[in-house]
Design brief:
This protein has twelve helices and 13 strands. The chain is α/β, with parallel strands linked by helices. α1 links the parallel β1 and β2.
Length: 310
């Protein structure tokens, strides 16, 4: 059981792109007294003292303390001991720990009986997508939901954000290829996507941390933007002042790509996102819309990206 003397202490798992965004957004809330002390769990460093000092400075600048634990090798019992020191756990580790890591983390959270848990679910509506999407890690996300829903001691909030906006433009993903002025639609030009930037996810996750019990034991949907592939192409043409080549990848072709390259993670992701439901939701129904919180839509993201290119 958690120590009843604890204030609202928070442990963020990971300080990558999303974890750092969450830490940046928690920092002012900490100064305002809206949350208690914040720590971040990181893998022990194998580098020298200079690198360790630099990492400590970076985390200290974000207003957090470092807890060193290797999620890949620590046992459920070992993690539970660490987690029991905190009121809230926010998982921002992604899938870097390999298959089963999110189940292990969730088991440790439940064993520690923390007050509130935000698991790594920053993605699609896995309930609607269901099992057998072709992306094994998505099935694990459903396992985590089953674990949380089958108990009543630990309060939880799932934050569904859609795809990271920048992921659309990763060359290896193959949807938007800016360099070659080409766009591939996954499945149909009318299929839709919801996207949100990591910075917005960090801001909204910090808000959700302080919005209890409004968001307890429910899914909070966020959306920076929602659009069809056709609208995506039109927006790129308009904002970047170009005419992208438009190519449709039907589901049958995406399935053939996966069959020919069964170990290719990006091909699996392309197939998993090629669906008419579960990967998009209306902006007007979201947590950010309900609370009138401005978000970065596709047009603004593209303008910012264009500005960074000089």
């Amino acid at each position: 059981m958690p120590n009843e003397a604890l204030v609202n202490t928070i442990l963020v798992l990971g300080a990558g792109e999303l974890g750092s965004a969450v830490l940046r957004s928690l920092s002012p809330l900490r100064r305002q007294g809206k949350v208690g002390p914040v720590s971040v769990l990181l893998r022990p460093m194998r580098a020298g003292p200079v690198e360790a000092v630099e990492r400590a400075k970076k985390i200290e600048a974000l207003g957090a303390a470092i807890v060193e634990v290797d999620l890949a090798t620590a046992t459920i019992d070992e993690l539970a001991v660490v987690f029991s020191r905190y009121r809230q756990i926010i998982a921002c580790t992604g899938f870097v720990g390999g298959p089963g890591t999110q189940r292990k983390i969730t088991s440790a959270v439940l064993k520690a009986e923390v007050d509130h848990y935000i698991p790594w679910q920053f993605g699609v509506d896995y309930d609607v997508v269901g099992r057998g999407s072709g992306q094994d890690v998505w099935d694990e996300q459903l396992d985590v939901r089953d674990m949380l829903r089958s108990q009543s001691r630990v309060r939880w909030t799932i934050v569904s954000t859609g795809m990271f906006t920048s992921f659309l433009f990763v060359p290896e993903f193959g949807v938007v290829d800016v360099e070659n002025n080409r766009l591939h639609a996954l499945g149909s030009w009318d299929y839709r996507l919801t996207v949100t930037t990591p910075e917005d996810i960090g801001r909204l996750t910090a808000e959700i941390v302080t919005a209890r019990p409004e968001c307890d034991d429910r899914i909070a949907f966020l959306a920076g933007d929602t659009f069809s592939y056709r609208e995506l192409a039109d927006t790129i043409d308009r904002v970047l002042d170009r005419r992208v080549e438009r190519i449709l990848w039907p589901v049958s072709e995406l399935e053939a790509q996966v069959a020919a390259h069964p170990d290719d993670v990006m091909r699996k992701y392309r197939r998993a996102f090629a669906r008419p439901e579960g990967v998009a939701w209306p902006k007007e129904t979201t947590f950010n819309a309900k609370h009138a919180i401005a978000m970065t839509d596709l047009t603004r993201w593209l303008r910012d990206w264009r500005g960074r290119q000089g």
